[in-house]
Amino acid sequence: MSEKVLMKGNEAIAEAAILSGCRHYFGYPITPQTEIAAYMAKRMPKIGGTFLQAESEIAAINMVYGTSGAGYRVMTSSSSPGVSLKQEGISYIAGADLPCLIVNVQRGGPGLGGIQPSQSDYFQATKGGGHGDYHLIVLAPASVQEMANMTVRAFDLADKYRMPAMLLADGTMGQMMEPVEFPDIKANKVEKPWAVTGTQMKRKHNIINSLYLNPEELEKKNEERFARYAEIEEKETLYESFMMDDAEYCVAAFGIAARVSKNAIVEARAQGIKVGLIRPITLWPFPKKAFDEAADKVKGFITVELSMGQMIEDVELATKCRRPVIPCNRTGGMIPSPDQVLSAIKKIAGGDQ
Amino acid sequence: MIVFEKPKSLTDVPLHYCPGCTHGIIHRLVAEAIDELGIEGRTVGVAPVGCAVMAYDYFTCDMVEAAHGRAPAVATGLKRATPDNIIFTYQGDGDLASIGTAETIHAATRNENITVIFVNNAIYGMTGGQMAPTSLPGQVTQTSPYGRDVKTVGYPIRMCEMLATMEGPEYIARVAVNNVKNVRNAKKVIQKAFENQVNGLGFSLVEVVSSCPTNWGMTPQKALEWVNDKMIPYYPLGVYKDRSAAKEGKE
User: Fold this and answer.
1) B101 Cβ contact list (under 8 Å, min separation 6)
2) Which residues in chain A are contacts of B53 at CB distance < 8 A?
3) Residues B32-50: pLDDT tens digits?
């Protein structure tokens, strides 16, 4: 499938997952991501794969744990309240060093919240989410094409580093239709000698486990994991830089907020304000260096988020609070307009323009 | 001539269980079933959270340690990915009948082709003797110090009876390991539960009425008597569902 097709973001994820060699999907219905499950329910039986609607999000993520343990590419998808339910299983998956893909098509919270787009699971996604010392690789798509591309990337990174990866999208990304193409996606096969495929009486038994009752052993395990995390920070951090060459101000935004911000930046430039954008593509690892270097050049930052302000803390940390950072937030399922972002840019650029 | 030896499917790791605990017997019965069916090389076990958490060190087959109650879901993920492998879970009463009730019932209703070994000793052993979903009415535990009061905490759950009402599962049976006769029967039933999976018949669960001398505060001998006098009357032994036998008019 190399021609352009018009697809919903959720469907693009599902198709890209299949092209990436994922033949096992476990999920539970929740708006606004159910199209992924529906797509998988249609396709998987036709291609010898598994689609299983689990009894709960908890069961779904534990099915993922089982299939990943057996050495197969596997995914689940959900939206915010459902992803909260999955956190126990995600912590076990991280603790057992298993690869998988978890998609969170975020909606407003907390609690049952709403069903409109949100980015308010940023903390949950990037700081661990479940219990214990761990991270996920977190990718933040900003178009339907990126929904597809990042699904492929997420599977590859998860396998490469033996850890769960998350696609952190939002209801807009999931629901909107855009042209997308699926270039030659290689279903990368990674050797998994640790998988529980049955010993075939040829080797000692493999054990998938996250229990280490000896604290020295657990500490060592966690340190090893964080050494791998350091390598990921070094090699896998991704961001987009937009109109930053001569920028005096920098907008920080990801996903749908970055798209809105670009419109505002073009307009601000038309009005003579030199402003650019840094769009984190990996939310973990966060592009700390890009922001740190930007802080040497710009006078201030504007963070645009569909939350009460969560990524702002990482921008402040990355820039060591050397420059003012002002938030431009909408929450509860609301999306900032380009005008709102423009007002925030004008505010920091000085004066009551 | 060797007249008695350790099953091949058990490792040499010394079991950590308390004196008088029946987990050792049940591990052995599971290992014997695996040996006799010749399936060790394609068997994957799923250990629970609870006393048997370290079962992954005791079986020679590939093993997975699941979160508390989630073993049937983990087993589902394993079985769907590797349908030719034999997947079993080994779970306690808190794991299977309390925190994992949903996973148990839904794996059963899907007739997931897995084998579930359910060890019911009416108490939480690993955490030091708290009330279990299967603790008997009036049973004194750390969290029911005045005896299980059914008016405030409800009645113990009879899982086999409940699961046997469902269309889904293939085989549901309850056995005990409190005397030689019962152990011999338990061996047959556990083997049957594995055979069913080998034959593609589906969800087979064996509840093993078990003892916990340490947390019951009894000698091992007294504990086995308590199994006979108190546990079995509330949890009658027998085959509660056997679809294939029923189809053949054997039941």
Assistant:
1) B69, B133, B157
2) 211
3) 999 999 999 999 999 999 9
pLDDT at A185: 76
The model carries a pTM of 0.97
Whether the CB of B222 is below 8 Å from some CB of chain A: the reply is: no
Q: A210 to chain B: which residues are within 8 Å by CB?
A: 65
Position A351 pLDDT exceeds 70: no
Give the DSSP H/E element, type plus range, for residue B187: helix B180-198
Residue B7 lies in a domain: no
Query: What are chain A's domains?
Result: 5-236 (3.40.50.970), 240-348 (3.40.50.920)
A266-277 tens-digit pLDDT: 999 999 999 999
Alpha carbon of B227: minimum distance to chain A alpha carbons (Å): 31
ipTM at complex level: 0.96
Q: Which residues span the domain enclosing B205?
A: 23-247
Strand partners, B119: B92, B208
Do residues A266 and A339 lie in contact, with contact meaning Cβ atoms separated by under 8 Å?
A: no
Q: In the A/B pair of chains, how many CB contacts fall below 8 A?
A: 134
How much is the CA Rg of chain B, to the nearest whole Å?
A: 17
Q: What mean pLDDT do residues A255-275 have?
A: 98
pLDDT above 80 (res A296) = yes
Chain A residues closer than 8 Å to B61 by CB: 198-199, 205
Interface of B with A in 131-150 (CB under 8 A): none
pLDDT in tens, B76-125: 999 999 999 999 999 999 999 999 999 999 999 999 999 999 999 999 99
A217 to chain B, any CB pair closer than 8 A? The answer is no
Domain assignment of residue B192, yes or no: yes
Structure tokens at B180: 């030689």
* Helix H or strand E segment including A241: strand A239-242
Instruction: Give the Cα separation of B211 and B219 in Å (integer).
Output: 10
Nearest to B44 among A89, A196, A201 (CB): A196
According to DSSP H, which parts of chain A are helical? 9-19, 34-43, 57-69, 80-95, 122-126, 144-161, 171-175, 215-236, 255-270, 288-297, 311-318, 338-348
Dihedral angle, C-alpha B71, A78, A94, A306, nearest 10 °: -150
Give the pLDDT of residue B250: 59
Token pair listed for A269: 């430039």
In the prediction, which pLDDT does B4 show? 86
**A51 vs B contacts (CB less than 8 Å):** none
Q: What is the pLDDT of residues B215-248, one digit of tens each?
A: 999 999 999 999 999 999 999 999 999 999 988 8
Domains held by chain B: number:
1
Q: Does A67 touch chain B (CB under 8 A)?
A: yes
- B121 in any annotated domain: yes
Tell whether A94 lies on the interface with B, counting CB pairs under 8 A: no
If you search the block for the tokens 């970055």, which residue do you land on?
A258
Instruction: Give me the CATH number covering residue B119.
Output: 3.40.50.970
Q: Domain for residue B4, yes or no? A: no
